[in-house]
């Protein structure tokens, strides 16, 4: 039985920087403003009751205004200039903030399963009318919902062109530090988006199959889609890694497994290419020069391509090898990032190749689990859901312990394909145990 509850919201308000901030226009990078990032993405964090009796909505709202002083571009608005280039006008208009109360306890949410799909998520992060545009709209929507038990839900929707997962975690952590009484964030934010612009003249040096000009695969009807999260405990992960071959990483093993199962579940015909893309963070790439505190998009998207029939008929080890081969160019991360920016500039910011595309984003080390507003670490922190072409790896606890030693993977598929996916996954897991 699906858990349902009432959520009572107050009127949305704009929260701007607590003090005067520069009025200027800043250009986004050529990685930031690619078409595939021109969308909003939701995250959610669930917190238990704290020792203090403070109101979480009041605490977060105050800290948010303080954090928007050093992060003042997030309080601005995007617009396009020549060649559809995105710039942010730092107007100080603010971000949307919603305060709410829900008639549910965290224990009830945990009993229902604290992984996507979350009950009443559309009420825990309410889509304020007119707020979801890419241009001229607030760049963040934040909702703090108090629970009956004294815990609360912090939900956030982000204009993806401004930050990636690591960047928004940096901002949320700054809000948390200010909420806990620190005088300033421990990490000073840095703009420096010009470091990820195309060279002059642009000169791509890699094939970049992630942007191959292939026809997109039609999406199934939204009404037929279902979301289900598959959780892999340590014993599962160890068996899958062993089945993947020597020195297989957790990411390689899970990405390969899920890609194979999904390809089979969707019955992609032999002779068609299946694609697996995965964001790779280049923040710490030697030679790129991104400073500590950079909070823009700093991911590239290496992509494995395989004949769907060969992928289904091969072994898990074969799929792992495809993932490894796709990762190899990122060993030269600085050059790969510059080459990506060059290609995006030359080809007018194309979308990722959407022909039988599946994206697996590893959020296990993004830092959501460390965001603390004064109530300790969240019971869950990470993406609020998934999409047909996009799944996440999220670190979760496998039992009552403190260690996040399991991996949750939310998957979105048509209903019939989801049944086949679960069956394929069960068969594949049995084969490696």
Task: Describe the structure in your own words.
The protein is 27% helix and 22% strand. Strand 8 and strand 9 (152-159) form a beta hairpin. The radius of gyration is 21 Å and the shape is globular. The protein has 433 residues and is α+β, with helices and mostly antiparallel strands. The longest helix has 18 residues, at 415-432. The protein is built from ten helices and 18 strands. Helix 6 crosses helix 10 (415-432). The strands form four sheets. Strands 1, 2, 4, 7, 8, 9 and 16 form a seven-stranded mixed β-sheet that branches. Strands 10-18-17-15-11-14 form a six-stranded mixed β-sheet. Strands 3-6-5 form a three-stranded antiparallel β-sheet, with no helix packed on it. Residues 11-30 are annotated as: Disordered. Belongs to the plant acyltransferase family. This is Benzyl alcohol O-benzoyltransferase.
């Amino acid at each position: 039985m699906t858990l349902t509850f009432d959520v009572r919201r107050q009127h949305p308000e704009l929260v701007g920087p607590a003090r005067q901030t520069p009025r200027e226009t800043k250009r986004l990078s050529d990685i930031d403003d690619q078409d595939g990032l021109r969308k909003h993405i939701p995250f959610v964090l669930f917190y238990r009751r704290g020792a203090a009796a403070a109101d979480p909505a009041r605490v977060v709202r105050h800290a948010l205004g303080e954090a928007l002083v050093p992060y003042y571009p997030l309080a601005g608005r995007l617009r396009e200039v020549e060649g559809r280039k995105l710039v942010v006008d730092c107007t100080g208009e603010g971000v949307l903030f919603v305060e709410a109360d829900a008639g549910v306890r965290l224990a009830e949410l945990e009993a229902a399963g604290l992984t996507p799909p979350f009950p009443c998520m559309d009420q825990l992060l309410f889509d304020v009318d007119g707020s979801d545009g890419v241009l001229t709209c607030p760049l963040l929507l934040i909702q703090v919902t108090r629970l009956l038990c004294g815990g609360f839900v912090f939900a956030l929707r982000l204009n993806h062109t401004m930050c990636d997962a690591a960047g928004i975690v940096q901002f949320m952590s700054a809000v948390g530090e200010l909420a806990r009484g620190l005088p300033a964030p421990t990490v000073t934010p840095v703009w420096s988006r010009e470091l990820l612009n195309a060279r002059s003249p642009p000169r791509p040096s890699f094939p970049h199959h992630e942007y191959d000009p292939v026809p997109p695969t039609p999406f199934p009807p939204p009404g037929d889609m279902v979301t289900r999260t598959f959780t892999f405990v340590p014993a599962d992960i160890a068996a899958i890694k062993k089945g993947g071959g020597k020195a297989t990483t957790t990411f390689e093993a899970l990405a390969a497994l899920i890609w194979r199962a999904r390809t089979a579940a969707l019955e992609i015909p032999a002779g068609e290419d299946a694609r697996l893309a995965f964001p790779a963070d280049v923040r710490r790439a030697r030679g790129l020069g991104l400073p500590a505190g950079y909070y823009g998009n700093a991911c590239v998207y290496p992509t494995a391509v395989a004949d769907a029939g060969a992928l289904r008929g091969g072994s898990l080890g074969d799929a792992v090898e495809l993932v490894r081969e796709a990762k190899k160019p990122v060993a030269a991360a600085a050059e790969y990032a510059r080459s990506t920016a060059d290609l995006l500039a030359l080809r007018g910011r194309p979308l990722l190749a959407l022909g039988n595309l599946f994206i697996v984003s590893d959020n296990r080390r993004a830092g959501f689990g460390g965001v603390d507003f004064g109530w300790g670490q969240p019971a869950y922190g990470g993406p609020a859901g998934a999409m047909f072409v996009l799944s996440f790896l999220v670190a979760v606890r496998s039992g009552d312990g403190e260690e996040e030693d399991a991996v949750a993977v939310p998957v979105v598929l048509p209903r019939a394909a989801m049944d086949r996916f679960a069956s394929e996954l069960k068969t594949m897991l049995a084969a490696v145990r």
